[in-house]
Structure formats: C-alpha cells, structure tokens
Amino acid sequence: MDLSRPTLHTTGVVGPGDRSIVAVFTLHPSGTSYGTAYTDIGRLTRSLNVPGASRPAGTWIGTWGSGVRVRTQTTTDSGTLTMLPAGVEVLVGCQKRGQQVSQPPYVNDWWAQLLQYGDYMTNIYLSVPENQAAWGTDLLNERGDRRAARRHPQGRR
pTM of the entire structure? Predict the structure, then answer.
C-alpha cells in the first residue's frame, strides 16, 4: 500500500444519539479520476448497513460530462454553486421544468434538484444506470408526485 498517494475519505456520526464514527478510506490506482474515486467511496459508504441510520431520500444517478454546473435556479443565467467532476453520482430529490438546454444531439427542459446542494443541474447530463431507455423512472416532479417514465428522445448515451 502506497500511503504517499492521495486518498479520499469520509467520516460521520450515525444513528440517533449514536457517537460511533464510521470512517472509510480509499486508495485508487494512479490516474483514477476524482469523479470515479468520489463515486466509489460514496457507493461503499452507502452500502454499509449501520444500525439506527436512515437512508437519505432521493435517487442516486450517475452523470456524464465534465464541469457540469450546479445552478441556483433552473436556468443557465442563474448563479453557479459548483461544477461537478466527470462521472460523479448525484442524489436527485425531484425535478423541475426550466430553461430548455441543448447539448447536441440532446435537448431537454427538465432540471434535477440535487439534494447534496439544494440546487439544480440540467437533466441532459444525468445517466440512467445500465443505459436503460426509461428516462426519469421514480423521480419526483416539483410537486412531489411520482411521474410516469418518459423515453429520452435520443435514446441513451
């Protein structure tokens, strides 16, 4: 084990009134992208069955593209909170219609609210796991209602 390489870690107190600390460390091969390492540690942490802990609401969905902007509103004119590294997974709580965005060949006016930030990213950069054609299955709309799956107009990437 080469401890001179950068590592990602996460720690936290879990369970109501629990003082236990869960620490997860990862060492990835040299050249692993930050997005891949971040997603791997998130998946590992989420897989832990911790007594008394509760799972967050929302759905984890992968992203594609580098530098995807997380915006304060559902428009490209609104402020940028952060930019996502390539390939991270995001926790989507709901989606909302907003400004239509085009990233040829994709066009979409749906925006996903990311629970980690409370702000939005365009749905264009969401990847459905396993390249399934269903677009948005089990996501909630802005009223909190489950909506029927829509087919992505261009298929999946």
Answer: 0.67
